Amino acid sequence: MSKGKAGCLEGPCKSRLGGALFVGTEVVTCGMRLRVPGSAPGWIEDETRVSDCAGRVVLIQDCVETSGAFLLHHLMKRTLSRESSEIVVFVAFAHPFYHYDRILKKLGCNLVTLSQKGRFIFFDMRKLDCLDEVGGGRTKSGLVELFHKIHKAAEVIASPETKKSCITIMIDDLSLVEVAAQGSSSYVLDFLRYCRTLTTEVGCTLILLNHEDIYSNSEESTLNLELEYLADIVMKAKPLATGLAADVHGQLTVLNKRSINEHGKIKKRIQNFQFKVKENSVDYFYSGSRT
């Protein structure tokens, strides 16, 4: 079974059934393969190809009990696969390069090699000076400078001379962007709105990881709502409502705001899965199929 140009699998058992491509007992959503026992449920109907996230904003929301970092890692793996020519621009606030290199090696990707080939561009914000200065004006200018760095990288990649097709921009921790902005959520939102313009300007994908439950007061809750408003796809990783289970690590809710129904109309669609994170893979399955 091989991978097609749009990031979809090709093979004799493939069929498109709704929230994603359905291949035998697998659902492919946003480039990830969701292993599902049995046949596809009836609520999976025809809609736009979620495996093709070009020009979209994908927001990953997690909490203290259930980290959503595995989604970021596996989306990175799918984007950097050998069959793909896509380039990742990774903006790291939480961890250094070697942290992601170690994790991605377990998933079959060598970030050092990919960096040398120009397919992985890493901005280590813990080492850059543009956000270290204190003061509202300087903080805002620091975020503007960061955007200019991202914008310049995207323009170079998207230029006709390089002949590179798709760009994915990833930010690993929005809460630390807010810390770098001296707690100003308005600066963070302005920065993200600028980044969002790149989805239409150069057709890139923007993937963001945010810790939803760290916000308690009304102002910070508003930031969460604004983030969900900016996103085209929202993926929420949460603990099981029924408590701990040996073979289930949590539940995943995927909200696709740009789903297209059988009548060709755009509508929102919500899909729910459970998951188990392994050392070099993740299993996704329907609720109740494991204990």
From TrEMBL:
GO terms for cellular component: elongator holoenzyme complex. Pfam families: ELP6 (PF09807). Pathway: tRNA modification; 5-methoxycarbonylmethyl-2-thiouridine-tRNA biosynthesis. It comes from the Eukaryota. One of its GO terms (biological process) is tRNA wobble uridine modification. Belongs to the ELP6 family. This is Elongator complex protein 6. The lineage of its organism: Eukaryota, Viridiplantae, Streptophyta, Embryophyta, Tracheophyta.
